[in-house]
Amino acid sequence: MKIVFFGTPDEALPTLEALARSHHEVALVVSAPDSRKGRNHKTSLPSPVTERALKLGLDVLTTENVNSGEALDLIRAKGADVGVIVAYGRILKQPLIDIFHHGIFNLHFSILPAFRGASPVTMTIAAGQRETGVSVQRIVLKLDAGPLARQTIVSIDDEDTTGSLKKRLAFVGAQEMLDTLADIEEGKLELTEQDEEAATFAKTITKDMGDIIWDRDATAIVNCVRAMNPWPTAYTHFERGGKLERLIIHRAEVIEDTASASEPGTIIESASKELMVSTATSNVRLSVVQRPGKKPVTDREFLNGVRFEQGAKFVRQTQND
Prior knowledge:
Rossmann fold, 2 domains, elongated, 24% helix, single chain
């Protein structure tokens, strides 16, 4: 079949590459416009999908408005049978959906109808779930509400971050998308409507969601650290030289069988140079941290350069919970 592929970030690459290797024809790749980096935003940086598509020798369309008449005309001219979308980051309107005889199929990184929306992997880890998966759905106008073609469950490891889990789901999802296309070709596609009453939603992640709330349960705090990695990263603040300094938290773990007798947020430096913090339940060890402008270090390395007075606390800068 002839395909138009829509995608932007790294997690879309396994599906794009699988399609390029398959017997299908990728007639066009549609991605977000180049981002601007550097001083005065003069450096243009293509999306990961644009960069890979060009290396694969594929035609690419980058546009702010994929629903514009100009974009629709270009896509329509390709005469594609089906659309494939993975983390594109733009809403597709009905005139665009109607271009494709077989519709547009979206790879979503959750077991729908759970965690519809922009950040399903992040919110799944933050919620402490033990498993997730991928869903291939034919898109409709309502967000992530289309009928399901395929689903596969994937377990979540204790050490998984949003970054590591997305990578695994991306490769699982690439195969699910190929299998969906095979079902369409062979006339075997069966679609299942989602249970609207069971739907949950994953809100868009903002930077302030990484600001740790220390009077929460220790496990919830560790899940937040995992969920916010690699972006926006979890962080907290401590007082140094009369000013608040940010401390990025890359890795944390619950210290079992330790009662938090101190007020949540209190810094506890163990005899073995482990950086622990009291929470609403047990203590949490911050095992890999990073100061502004520095590289990530272990807690032992961090404590070699920073001394805390007894009773010192990590504090939150974001006021709205």
